[in-house]
Amino acid sequence: MRILHYVDAAFIGWEVPYIELIKSLDALGIENILLCRPKGRIEKVAREYNVKLFTYKHLFSWSPIVSPRFMKLIKEISPDIIHTRLSNAARIAGLCGKKLNIPVVSTLDGCFNLKCYKNSTHLLPCSKAVRDYEISCGVPLEKMTTIHNAINLQKFSPNEQKRNEFRKNFGVSNNDLIFLGLGSYTYRKGFDILLKAFAEFLKKSTFKNAYLWLAGNGEEQENLVRLANELNISERVNFLGYVEDVRQVLWVSDILVMPSRAEGFSLALLEGIASGLPVIVSDIEPFTEIISEEQNNGFVAEGENPESFAMKMLKMLKIGDKERKIIANNALEMVKKNFTTEIIARKTLEIYENFTLR
Q1: pLDDT tens, 233-242?
Q2: What is the chain's Cα-based Rg?
Q3: What is the pTM of this model?
Q4: Strand 279-282 relative to strand 255-258: parallel, antiparallel, unpaired?
Q5: What pLDDT, in 10s, does the model give residues 62-117?
């Protein structure tokens, strides 16, 4: 079985887990080929992982007309299935698949414009929340299968030696407590909520060595820095910017806080759990597919409510190291059973077989 994985981009932000999933499909006997734009991080990571690769950049990606050169490339690759990521790739591949009679399966990483997916044979929403949204837009349930994002557990497994080394390199003492926010500096990630929550936490807590680190980049950075200054907490907040290997900051940190207003399905949350961190999340559905206080695998705060997040942060500190470790282990067991790269690869293979064995 030959699968063409197509993403019409050079950078996506989650290149490594994307390529790792392709490599797990290799291990299941699939011939995988990746097609992406040239001279970007996707190409770089694919070459590092020895993934068979083609690159192509459309002259006008917004045009509804697929170029003859691109059609010729697809014919040369001759895939049994085209598997797309992101909406523009789905639109382009959908037109090619229709003309060449090739099934197109499209992962939905969020709630996108469904016009781009009208020619996709089958949709793979990355969470129940995304699936439910597509149903509300009129997509029939039988045209979709939920396939979650995946995490390489072995890669993120906590390393105490590295933790101590990284904390020393970052100037973090054994008495310091690091809250971590991980993701792009955008409105939907809710870091403004987290900054306000941290300010409330500092007012209410007697703990003197607590800090907030924000790892990421984006258009909201200037506004977030300004907000930290207005809240008089800038000395306790570290804007790390983009971190290529997030394991460094995950292993240094103590508690992951995810205040997002909206998510497709958060890889950052899976990475935090895989790194052994207890987590506090907002009460949006993709998070609550994993984290539940009833299951004692994390804390859930009321979305858009800094006070609620502050109270959960105080509670996480109050319960102590032993109970935090229990909570983190419970979340890890949940991830082991449902979201490893190997599990998601097998589920993806089942989708492919549904179309190639007909």
Answers
A1: 999 999 998 8
A2: 21
A3: 0.90
A4: parallel
A5: 565 678 899 999 999 999 999 999 999 999 999 999 999 999 999 998 766 788 89
